[in-house]
């Protein structure tokens, strides 16, 4: 292991008094105590390292398979246990995990982050692993694609990734306006170009989300697969997580076997997922399509115990048969 990711110098020696190493950061009350807890978790086989004032690299060495994830500090701390989402997934598989944590919407456009990945390349860090997967969602999805260039042959799974936020290239995306001031034109900048040497790349998005679909269309190459999670909305990672699909999708991506058929079979689980069904009902209601509303309610009531759908169906006047909205 290189000095870059060697155990922290502050890690206890074999002769030092021992105490229970935390398995999560649930006891943390502020950012400092949270970072300290992550440092204890990584102390034996890894470390946490600041990358400038707004980023940290959290690494746990646990085998020859590596998951590299990108996550915002606030999102990690909002989860049960206050841990990065990918940490539990990697731990359950016995994988090593490198998480680049961002404080705020930095989009990882920081010289310190770039320098860190440069050092990983110089130290041949990724060569020590048999399999590598870069993963992220939204801002993290952009970073997963942009930094995958540092590990040729790595797999990539990106949910709702942006290709770039440079105004000249993506002026049509008006969501993250503050990020337009960041430099997306220099190193690790245009994400689709950074995937040239990657293994299998999977881009997952909801085509009904206009900007996400436009970004996805910019990722074009024979080794890139674009998968559609129709009507998932703009919180795709949250939906997949609550459906219990994310761990299996990540494992399939790690093994380079995530394709349209595997995803389609997994995505059928949405038909039993209350928030998705209510979203579909809202779409039909907003579009003033009472026949579709009735059809959705009949389908749900037939398959599930769903009092609210049964009540809605009972309130409807008889409607002619309708064609289901594409799901």
Could you walk me through the main structural features you see in this protein, from its secondary elements to its overall organization?
The protein has an 8-stranded mixed beta sheet, with helices on both faces. It has helices spanning 31-42, 73-78, 85-93, 111-122, 139-147, 167-170, 210-217, 236-242, 246-254, 260-267, 274-286, 290-303, 307-315, and strands spanning 46-51, 55-60, 65-72, 96-102, 131-137, 155-159, 201-205, 224-228. The protein has 327 residues and is α/β, with parallel strands linked by helices. It is globular. Mean pLDDT is 88; it is low at 1-19. The protein has 13 helices and 8 strands. The protein starts with 30 loop residues before the first helix and ends in a 12-residue tail after the last helix.
Distance between the termini: 47 Å
* Oligomeric form: single chain
Low-confidence stretches: 1-19
**Morphology call:** globular
How large a portion of the residues is in β-strands, by DSSP E? 5-15%
> Major beta sheet, specifics?
8 strands, mixed
Fraction of residues in helix: 25-40%
- The tally of strands reads 8
Question: What's the layout of helices and strands?
Answer:
Blueprint: H1 31-42, E1 46-51, E2 55-60, E3 65-72, H2 73-78, H3 85-93, E4 96-102, H4 111-122, E5 131-137, H5 139-147, E6 155-159, H6 167-170, E7 201-205, H7 210-217, E8 224-228, H8 236-242, H9 246-254, H10 260-267, H11 274-286, H12 290-303, H13 307-315
Parallel strand pairs: 3-4, 3-5, 5-6, 6-7, 7-8
Antiparallel strand pairs: 1-2, 2-4
Helix pairs in contact: 11-12, 12-13
